Amino acid sequence: MESNFTTDRNYKYEKAKEKVQAIKGFYGNLLAYCIVIPFLAYINYNTTSFLWFIFPALGWGFGLLMNGLYAYGYSPFFSKKWEERKIKEFMQES
Prior knowledge:
By secondary structure, the chain is mainly alpha-helical. The chain is about 85% helix and about 0% strand.
């Protein structure tokens, strides 16, 4: 019985560790975004009148949004309920 408890604790620890790493990665990406995009805007404003920095800002911003949603556990496409249903479905097939 204790091995079940230990296995469950290890599983929870690993899941918590993964979540912390995802959040940490999100904040690293956010920091890089906040440094690089203003730098690109500065270069853009000093070199040309075409606002090209908007394209990397929007692309990277969308990726950052998706990364944040994943890091904080919000998934509009594949929710936890969907994931649990699929796991149960595949376990029953085996």
